[in-house]
Records
---
Amino acid sequence: MRRPRAYTSVWLLIIVNLAGKAAALCVGLTAPAAAVALWLLPDALLAYHLFVPRAQGLVKVHRRFATSQREVWLTIDDGPDPADTPRILEVLAEHGARATFFVIGKNAAAHPELIQSILAAGHEVAHHTHTHPAGSFWCASPARLAGELDGGLAVLRAAGIHPTRFRPPVGIKNLWLATALTSRGLVYTGWSARGLELQGGDADAVARRVLRGVQPGSILLLHEGPRLPAIIRVEGIRRTLEELKQQGYRCIVPAAEQLR
Ligand SMILES: [Zn+2]
């Protein structure tokens, strides 16, 4: 069986890192400046691939989809939420929009009725970890990573869903992520643009941010839930849908073979 490209990259990054450390120790006394550079540069390379959402070194990140139509993919993270999800479903229905909800497993377990409402309205439910460990996902051990993936999968499967799409918290990677996703039939779904709802401003500002540079095939990321400022909860999604309609865009859920 062909080994996934990202799996090879993990070991390459580790080897480069260790080689850098060894070289730094070798030249440490004779060339201290070079030693510092050799020590730190591989760490910077590793950090880039772990923390920069668009970096492709550790796992294939889908950031757009192929289409010849004026279509975008709206994705909504961090739900389901008892206050927001029902209202978001109404807004989506008003605009004839389809979306994918990347849900947190424990939220889905607490509100199975919301998961069924999302499905009944014709939207997709996808995997956004079981507990959303944004601060520690990058360094989670293979066992803990498996727990995050399998915990969420168990909740979704109990609801009759077999998700194929996964998005980690804040787009952060993990050294073991590519193989863990492949073995579970999940693909990493990134985004083309996001609303950055915690950066301030009102719903208009969120819509402006997520639609800056929008084009056919864009993957748009917005959020729901209590972490958001009250002024933009649901309203950021509403304003984005209004603006998309103005620009002649339709919100669809692309097929797997369309992902790029
Ligand atoms: Zn999230």
---
Amino acid sequence: MPDPGPSLSELIDMQIRANGPMSIASYMTLCLTHPRHGYYKQTDPLGARGDFITAPEISQMFGELIGFFCVNLWQQMGEPRSFTLLEPGPGRGTLMQDALRVATRAEGFGDALHLQLYETNEELKAQQAIRLSQYDPYWPGEIDAVSDDPLIVVANEFLDALPVRQFVRGTQGWHERLIGLKEGRRRFGLSPTPIPESAMPEAVRAAAPGEVYEVSLASVDVMQRLGKAAARRGGGILAIDYGYPRTRTGETLQAVRRHEFADPLEAPGEADLSAHVDFGALAEVTRKAGLTAQPLVTQGEFLRRLGIAERATALSRANPGEAAAIGAALDRLTGANQMGELFKVFCAASPGLVPPGFAS
Ligand SMILES: C[S@@+](CC[C@H](N)C(=O)[O-])C[C@H]1O[C@@H](n2cnc3c(N)ncnc32)[C@H](O)[C@@H]1O
């Protein structure tokens, strides 16, 4: 049998011994996307038997309403005869399959559609290829692969998978939280070099010693690139995730393994690492790119405004034997104690467009 080589845990520890403590972002990047051992490079993590379950895997209603959202935006954009629909992190392709089943009923939508899927996991890519083959999808190597036609982006639980850095407020400024080794075990510690207050966003400058500021430069980069592309070509970005509306202090890095919270420093590559999304920072980036950012809404509110209750009633009428399961899915997607309040919906679109599901 070929030598499997060092495990990810050993590789990380070797790197720390050679280079000193590493940032949380570097650690997350290795854990999630290391070419051989990264969590998202391995098998399918989704669903009841995986580590977590996502909204489109709970019910077809979720994707169907996003399909309606896409048609509505495309119509407001003047029904361009060619446009790109991009989904970063499409998982099993379930959301897009449900969305396009509905959206392609609108005349002209299917003919105009160029479907792009941005994905790192080969097994999930294979599932996407099967589910979405009839739409002839393309997997770009870069999230903002050049194309000149209008752009609609839909991302569910993608941004939370991008790495974050953490900074802890000290008495002399901010110190980056790093991962080092103590007595042979990985431990969190602080960089001794303070970062001046002026380098931090204004929203966190009044923080008390000990408070933590978390920032995802990778999310900001993705939103900047997509925001510029959508502003130049016309269109909009819809992102659904757990997160908060304004930049603030607070630490949210978490590890989930087989539906249970776990220690982020244990078993690298075997647990899903994620962090809540700073939608305030992303709104600012998209505004600077030339888009209009909508006030953030909760997932429950967004789905209700798009008519999820009516869709659940219609589905239950058509499938009376499934009515209880449909009711349970409705509750799970929109209930205040379930996904309805925790998950937020962000949208930034070309000025003049009125994305459905938002207050304005
Ligand atoms: C939490 S899953 C969500 C899947 C799907 N959107 C859903 O709602 O079921 C995250 C998705 O993003 C992909 N992903 C994570 N990090 C990525 C990266 N850096 N580049 C591209 N895709 C990534 C994963 O492989 C997976 O498809």
